[in-house]
Amino acid sequence: MCSLTCLLCTVIVGEIANFAAYAFAPAILVTPLGALSIIISAALAHAILQEKLHTFGILGCVLCVVGSITIVLHAPQERDIDSVKEVWDLATEPAFLCYAAIVVASALVLIYFVVPHHGQTNIMVYIGVCSLLGSLTVMSVRALGIALKLTFSGTNQLFYPQTWAFAVIVATCVSTQINYLNKALDTFNTAVVSPIYYVMFTSLTIIASVIMFKVTHFITFMSNYYHLLLSECFLLKKAKKFTCLVFDYILDLI
Question: What keywords tag this UniProt record (predicted)?
Fold first, then answer.
């Protein structure tokens, strides 16, 4: 019971820290660095679960570190935000509204037309819903993080209706993501679901952040990001003997 409590507390602290990161750093930087969790997982599995980390696994971890450092050094700058209303103005500009409309429409098509027929046979269906809505979740979490940071620093943002609108978006998207992610994990192998979800979610989040916050030097950043993506695919493919055709295709493209 004590161990379970410690684990739950660890998860809660980790999620709070992840939420706080979006208040102080751009989403385009925070989200890709989630690849560092692969290194921690590999090290803990080697030390605690006695799952031997082979040479390819170690090399994959090194590549993840190199990719993460590259992202930190070359991540584009975002504009300074002084109010949650500024984030709302960015979110309601035509470019991002168009992106959000495409995301919502695509998610609805998947949920109502594709899931009933192909959800149990095609892994990309459930993961597609989670990844699409996840990009909107991150943008809203970023707005909430900024609102709370400004509130704690003395500029109350809680009386703005935009703050609560972002909170509703987060609650709606997160509940839907959890539902379909659980379905994906129940239906398909976790070793297949997790990496595909990470790659799709991160890619869409970067695209959403670029559109919403008008990030410059996009090409340079994406080249660094796909360096990190290649590192993770290499780790999963070689260290874990992962043979998913999707990642074979990605590695061939890269």
Answer: Cell membrane, Endosome, Ion transport, Magnesium, Membrane, Transmembrane, Transmembrane helix, Transport
Exposure letters 188-207 (e unless 16+ CB within 10 A, then b): beeebbbbbbbbbbbbbbbb
DSSP letter string over the chain? -HHHHHHHHHHHHHHHHHHHHHHHS-HHHHTGGGGHHHHHHHHHHHHTS-----HHHHHHHHHHHHHHHHHHHHPPPPPP---HHHHHHHHTSHHHHHHHHHHHHHHHHIIIIIHHHHTTT-HHHHHHHHHHHHHHHHHHHHHHHHHHHHHHTT---TTSHHHHHHHHHHHHHHHHHHHHHHHHHHHS-HHHHHHHHHHHHHHHHHHHHHHHHT-S-HHHHHHHHHHHHHHHHHIIIIIS----HHHHHHHHH-
Annotate 42-62 with b (16+ C-beta within 10 A) or e (fewer): beeeeeeeeeeeeeebeebbe
Residue that wins the pLDDT comparison between 104 and 232: 104
The region of weakest confidence among 14-28, 57-71, 168-182 is 57-71
Spatial CB neighbours of 66, under 8 Å, sequence gap ≥ 6: 227, 231
- The tens digit of pLDDT for each residue in 219-248 reads 555 555 555 555 555 555 554 444 444 445
Cα–Cα separations (whole angstroms), residue 61 to 7, 43, 205 = 24, 9, 23
Please state the domain extents for the chain.
Answer: 14-253
